[in-house]
Design a protein that fits this description.
This protein is an alpha/beta fold. The chain has a single domain, classed as TIM Barrel, CATH 3.20.20. Helix content is 40%, strand content 18%. The protein is built from 14 helices and 15 strands. The strands form four sheets. Strands 2-3-4-5-6-8-11-12 form an eight-stranded parallel beta barrel, surrounded by six helices. The chain has a three-stranded mixed beta sheet with strand order 7-9-10, covered by helices on one side. α3 packs across α14, α7 packs parallel to α10 and α9 runs antiparallel to α10.
Length: 400
């Protein structure tokens, strides 16, 4: 027996997210393309054609609309728009503008992310985010995106998961080839300062394009849970990896919450999940309630007046019934946060498509399966289920 409730308000963003490099294919001028083809990087497999969404974006949008989704978060690719420093491709800007117009024509509200992990090779060669003039170069790129976002785009994300950018920079400086068994490497402080400055410059640039655009950025929330006696250790561990980036969003129009699992912290630091814990294809602990904890912690840090949007949440699994179960638990947590007074404006699943997960196609997060040979798209039962909720806004709940 089930009950239904309608906790999601009118205008609530109900959609799915993607990232350009992970779905477009042949992003040949990006730093990741070069990394994928460098044996020293030990990447399991390159992205190559990815999902060929550069050419098939209309089909992807048609599917999302047909499933019932009202919002689509996608990113534009800096390496395509500015393949050479100071040279901007009008054809690529027009391509992404067509995507915005295509979404609007279908009744699909576009959320545009301006940076989702990849940078042009020339930017990396300069030294990346910590190079002299990097902030100004990013702001100039944002200004050049004006034709894409100036008309009809309500939400713009400047930088996706800046805390992970700083973490990866810290790992690279330390010579680490992988992450520890639990928790994250120490973020690079210089990169932290740089991406925060770049974000603030980008917010200013977006508001100069159109002050009506709602602009923010998204944080990778690890849901650090303190074991008894480890509260201070947890706070000290979390601050440079998460809270400093949440705090940097003060003055923005919204902040994106992205969460998948949890990390327990003991007196000595992060503790791996138990051996018998259910794990996803990314080897993360199966923990649907994570997004609720992430929303509440973000609100605690930045204050109750900041609108929150779940800009990524999902599970890598080959068992679609577990995907439905995960989303059920996650949405119950989101609904509970709303009922408790948090200003949650939307929920966008990760990911619309089974895509390139930064080194491998094996972790399947997608609501829609993609055949890697024919590129045929096949919506999964979870897509029909989650999209259907977008039509009704009625969340099934087990009777208690």
């Amino acid at each position: 027996m089930t009950q239904t409730s309608t906790p999601f308000p009118d205008g609530f963003l109900w959609g799915a997210s993607t990232a350009a490099h992970q779905i477009e294919g042949n992003n040949v001028n990006s730093d990741w393309w070069r990394k994928e083809h460098d044996p020293a990087a030990r990447i399991a497999e390159p992205s190559l054609d990815a999902c060929d969404s550069y050419h098939r974006w209309e089909q992807d949008m048609d599917l999302l609309v047909g499933l019932g989704f009202t919002d689509y978060r996608f990113s534009v690719e800096w390496a395509r728009i500015e393949p050479v420093r100071g040279t901007f491709s009008r054809a690529e800007i027009a391509h992404y503008r067509r995507m915005v117009e295509g979404a609007l024509a279908r009744g699909l509200r576009p959320m545009v992310t301006l940076h989702h992990f990849t940078v042009p090779q020339w930017f990396e060669d300069l030294g990346g985010w910590t190079a002299a003039g990097a902030v100004e170069l990013f702001a100039r790129y944002v200004e050049e995106c004006a034709p894409i976002i100036a008309d009809g785009v309500r939400h713009v994300c400047t930088i996706n998961e800046p805390n992970m950018i700083a973490v990866m920079a810290g790992a690279a400086k330390a010579g680490d080839q992988g992450f520890p068994p639990a928790g994250l490497p120490t973020p690079d402080e210089e990169t932290t300062r740089a991406v925060i400055a770049a974000h603030h410059a980008a917010v200013k640039a977006v508001r100069a394009i159109d002050p009506g655009i709602q602009v923010g950025w998204t944080i990778a929330n690890q849901v650090y849970q303190a074991l008894p006696g480890a509260e201070e250790v947890t706070a000290a561990y979390r601050h440079p990896r998460e809270d400093v980036f949440i705090e940097a969003a003060r003055g923005d129009d919204w902040i994106g919450v992205q969460s998948y699992t949890r990390t327990k912290i003991g007196p000595e630091g992060p503790i791996p999940a138990p051996e018998d814990a259910e794990r996803t294809l990314t080897q993360w602990e199966y923990y649907p309630a994570a997004v609720g904890h992430a929303l509440r912690h973000t609100a605690d840090v930045i204050g109750p007046d900041m609108p929150l949007i779940v800009t990524e949440n999902g599970i890598a699994t080959a068992d679609d019934t577990r995907r439905v179960d995960y989303y059920t638990g996650a949405l119950e947590a989101v609904a509970a946060a709303i009922e408790d007074g948090l200003d949650v404006r939307g929920y966008l699943a990760w990911s619309a498509l089974d895509n390139y997960e930064w080194g491998s196609y094996e972790p399947t997060f997608g609501l829609i399966a993609v055949d890697q040979v024919t590129f045929a798209r096949t919506p999964k039962p979870s897509a029909e289920w989650l999209g259907g909720l977008g039509r009704t806004r009625e969340l099934p709940r087990a009777a208690r």
